[in-house]
Amino acid sequence: MEECRFETSELQASLMMSTPLWSDSWSLCNVADSSRSIQIQHIAGTMYVALPEVEMNQPGNLVGLEVAGDEFFSAFSTASTSDEPPPMVNGAIRELFVSSARFIESQITQGLEMEERKQVIITGYSTGGAVAALTTLWLLSQPSPPSLPLLCITFGSPLLGNQSLSSSISRSHVAQNFCHVVSIHDLVPRRNDEQLWPFGTYLFCSDNGGLCLDNAASVRTMFLILNSRGTPNIDEERQRYEHYVSTLSHQFLISRSSRSGDISDNSYEAGVALAVESLGFSDDHPSGISAKECIEAATRMSRAPIERASELAIELGDVLPSRLEIQWYKDSCEASPKKLGYYDNFKLYSNPRELKVNMSRAKLAKFWDRVYEMVETNQLPPDFDFELKWLFATQFYQLLAEPLDIAYFYKYKYSRTGTGHYMENGNRPKRYLLFDKWWKERGECHRVKTARTRYASTTQDTCFWAKLEEAKEWLDDVRSEGTDAQRRALLWEKIVGFESYADTLVKMKDASLDVLAENSSYRVWVKKLEEFKTDNGIGMVVGESDAMET
Amino acid sequence: MALDFIPGISKALIATSWRLSTKPYTTNDQFHQEVVEDNTVVVAFRRSFLEKDWFAPANESSFGETKMDPAEFPSMISFSNDVDADARATVNEAFLKSLQLLISPSCTQSVKTLVENMRPRRIVFTGHSSGGATAILAAVWYLETFFTKKCSDFPVCLTFGAPLVGDYVFKHGLGRENWSRLFVNFVTRFDIVPRIMLAPKASTKQALPYALSQLGRTRAPIQENDQTIAGFYATVMKDVETAARQAACELIDGENAFLETFSSFLELSPYRPAGTFVFSTGTRFVEMSNSDAILQILFYAYQSTNEQELSERPNQSIRDHHGYEEMVDSMGTKDVYQLDLNHFLSDGGEYALFDLRLSTSARECVRAAFEAEKKRNDNQSKIETTITKQSTTKKSIEEKLKWIEEEYKQPRCQAPAKGYYDSFKESNDDNDFKANVTRAELAGFFDDVLGLMKKGQLPDGFEGDSDWIKLATGYRRLMEPLDIANYYRHLKNEDTGSYMGKGRRPKRYKHAQKLDEHDLLKSGGTAEKIMASCLSICFWAEVEDLRGKKYDEVTNEGTVEERVTKLENFLIDEKVDDHIFLEGSTVTKWWHSLPEHHKRSSLLQQRMGYTRAT
After folding, report:
1. Is the pLDDT reported for residue A227 higher than 60?
2. Are A361 and A326 in contact (CB under 8 A)?
3. Which chain B residue has its CA at the smallest distance from A253's CA?
4. How far is A328 from chain B (nearest CA, A)?
5. CA separation (Å) from B185 to B18, B20, B91?
6. B607, HSE (Cβ side, Cα atoms, 13 Å)
7. Contact at 8 Å (CB) between B92 and B62?
8. Distance between CA atoms of residues A510 and A456, nearest Å
9. Where are the beta strands (DSSP E) in B121-197?
10. Is residue A1 within 8 Å of A261, Cβ to Cβ?
11. How far is residue B394's CA from residue A501's CA, in Å, rounded to a whole number?
12. What is the ipTM score, two decimals?
């Protein structure tokens, strides 16, 4: 991995503090708190919504983000692959949210009608901040999310929910819409930090400046460091934020140099030192040392995904010949006098050509499994699957290679009593489930909807062959003597289902030539079916499935 | 160190430029001119301190910006940007208007007439304050209008305390054409004017007319403790800070999702420094051309070490806007330090920036700017290595292209073969497979390069380099037919529509074509020649599309009959390769499938060996 050259946590904090966004948000929070009501204001083309702080005597219990009986958050995608507990939030905060959500939504809709630049900042101090965050999350998670840019800025907000909430926010690509401003002396934001997890970007402020951290693990470490420094006896937390907003943002024209005076030649180290100083820690004090380690770890964690993604892009180029090899194999099978498609050829033969193709198949599978693993463990940038390059690469790969994976499965692994079918018992590689999901969510829109005039170059349902293998078995069973009538009827229903499915696929020309090759196992199956029908006097014409009703 | 920003620019010439820039006007004239050193003419533009000359009154955008017209400024464009509107350079509309007034035919004192009369003498465009902005745009216009690659009498543009004029694309365009070196901007340390354009109109609106009027007063003593002025400077510098910090964050951590969201809420100035800047820092001059670093210096050089200094800044800043006399006088006596990548790498800029006493974070940001430049240069050398150097594991790009040309294309382009297009489309033998792998590898390489260009991770001059244009054009001519063949072989037109349709043709080819067309234009090529350069490859896609259509069909692009005729005319007029007409070629087969009555009157009869059916 390339070494980090620069450290931006302090720079990013300075940027934020230089903008009117944070001072305007804070002013409106003050108005909301003193009037104890929701405040809305338009400043320079941005709509600000501030939620008032509400006194809470006891910490609320955690409740599910999604509560049966109200429709809030039903659309929030919490899909996870592991057995994670459901996302939970502070119940009292959720109640406050429920009481104001619809009102805020309608205010935003109305308020934006008169705005030209449509963007909304939702803000709040303390508990108001937590309600602001939950409101923002709700607006972002609606099925047709408002296309307007939405940013949540909280000041001294208590933690909102559990670890699952934090990780599902990251997975849904909305973590970047949250910014939590936290004074290093303020205890409220880190109360209960063993049970509750932070999410979004944290801006830690002290009299000396600020620093930004944007992954939950680093923020938690910072909480621990701050906890270990003991509790300063400070009552007027609110005034502390006031002080930061008014002084830090106005000191910008006075240059601030590292106290160590001698700037390190290594820019990265200098940046880390600056960040530590911005919290008012000195780098020889234990807390300064741990803060330094925390910042360094945060940099590694945020850079690594980007570097991994660029390494993968190079590897993608390296496995490309393998995909082309399979493509070529497919083409030459279709042109060969054997009149078998590449699926059947690969399944039936084990000549040097097939062995070579199998190596390519395995190489590709290995590469894409790694991509899958990295996606599942959040090791890649959050917008990885939004890149068209990767979307199309997965699609092309899957269309071409999955039939061979199916062939391989039925050639070597399948046993009726053991493994079960390809589509059963998790036999289908997980990577394909993920690619299916990506394509469904983001890929379909790239297809033109006109009817095909020729057969597709690859069969559009990549599981076609697996379905056929099952249908083959059904047909064999129906024909076998030992099957009882009830089961036979059940099987027949399935056969008819497949027949009509395959027929549509062919009619729409969504099937490729390998399916239609004269000796392909599909054609063989269709022939067998016809024979069976003739033998049994079933005069069903393909497509008219109601004939079976009789 | 000598004063040699540009060979041939003497101290005397700079002094003359300054004198003319500030020479009072008694008439409605918009510029002064003076012939000096027998073959050079200095044209100095009039400055104005009226608000309407800084922000066009009718302009509603946040920074008074507008897009440049590519018809008038064909180089002020980014070729790697696919969205046409974003690809055009952005400039300040008020400044552009003042230029347009001077070059319009109705203008009594026309710059156009002047420069036409003065050529081939070398022209120096100059101006102080807003006059400098006009000078910059006039020089760009002059270069665009009169210069081809072969010209030698390049103009020069010298500005004194000029506001920023254009955006990143503007700067990129100057860099690509190798014109950046012709623009030299002198800036005194605290002059506010080069910083004003970094603040949105809205934040300075109220105080601007007054501030400009103060800046315009050259003699009258400045009132101490003027609160309006102090407020104005604080506001501008606050916005300069945001612009500089945001740029630095993006430079270092461009892929940070939070930064991106957060930045989208800010009103960020599009303007960026372009050309060379010469700062006077006190005891010395510092010369820089790295736009990112200049932006950081514009902010950090203004910082003070204590409150007392800070309170003096506004007045100092007005003084500095008129401090160029002193700067010009001290040229030759004060040292000039070049702060370029080489010097930066050797001493971190310590020496050159000594006077500024930069803070730790300031030095971090300047460093980041130079590191980014180094990265761009490194990317370029990596690409150059991949093109020429053959390694044991990978063939060089040149080798691959040579193999396709000599081993693949040529044998297939002689009868009885059917041409390399059709041979590839059918892909029957091992070499077809090999060619396909090579095609994919080359595509990967050119896609990667385009990706770097899009992200601005190559030097601006890379795209303008004639070797690169030659390589990319050669690649496009040789390989695009194979990509078209591949597209239609896999029936991708059934999935996603025609190859030439929106978003289907690979961007690497579109980009290579744009570069080629621009190169032809800049070497004085005609419009017809430029058109033909595109068609000579893409006609394959047109043939494939027409194959699937009925002769009497009407398509979105016109009737099939018209399209057929147009294509035939092209095949007749242009020198297309003979192999296109080989028997068994898609073109030949397609033509023979046309209706008899069409073929009878077709211009291609002879070429196709057509004899009328009897």
Report:
1. yes
2. yes
3. B303
4. 7
5. 12, 16, 17
6. 22
7. no
8. 5
9. 122-128, 156-160, 183-188
10. no
11. 47
12. 0.85
Between A221 and B357, the more confident residue is A221
For residue A175, give the chain B residue with the closest CA.
B258
Q: What is the pLDDT of residues A153-208, one digit of tens each?
A: 999 999 999 998 998 888 788 899 999 999 998 888 988 888 899 999 999 998 88
Which residues of chain B make contact with A446, given a CB cutoff of 8 A?
496
Cis, bond preceding B416 (omega within 30 deg of 0): yes
State which amino acid sits at residue B586: T
Closest approach of B575 to chain A, Cα-based (Å): 34
Which of the pair, B415 or A4, is modelled with greater confidence?
B415
Rounded to whole angstroms, how far apart are CA atoms B235 and B243?
A: 13
CB atoms within 10 A of CB A428: 20
Chain A residue numbers with beta carbons less than 8 Å from the beta carbon of B394 are none
Q: Are strands A88-90 and A150-155 parallel, antiparallel or unpaired?
A: unpaired
Give me chain A's average pLDDT, please. Answer: 85
Kindly state the DSSP code that residue B283 receives in the 8-state scheme: S
Tokens representing residue A174 in the block: 């909305």
Express each pLDDT in B108-138 by its tens digit: 778 888 888 887 788 999 999 999 999 999 9
Tokens 């907000």: give the residue.
Answer: A157
Q: Measure Cα distances from A99 to A62, A93, A107, A135 in Å.
A: 18, 10, 14, 11
Give pLDDT, residue A288.
Answer: 85
pLDDT at residue B491 above 80?
Answer: no
The upper half-sphere exposure of residue B466, i.e. CA atoms within 13 Å in the direction of its Cβ, equals 5
Whether A258 has its CB under 8 Å from any CB of chain B: the answer is yes
Q: Band of the pLDDT at A550, cuts 50, 70, 90?
A: very low
Return the residue of B nearest to A388 by Cα. Answer: B503
Rounded average pLDDT over B404-432: 85
Question: Mind listing the pLDDT tens digit for each residue in A123-142?
Answer: 999 999 999 999 999 998 87
Longest CA span, chain B: 102
Q: Tell me the C-alpha distance between A533 and A544, whole Å.
A: 14
Provide the strand spans (E) within B449-603: 554-555, 558-559
Residue A177, phi-psi category: left (phi > 0), alpha (psi -120 to 50), beta (remainder): alpha
Q: Which of B258, B304, B368 sits opposite A6 (nearest CB)?
A: B368
Contact (CB, 8 A) for A519 and A338: yes
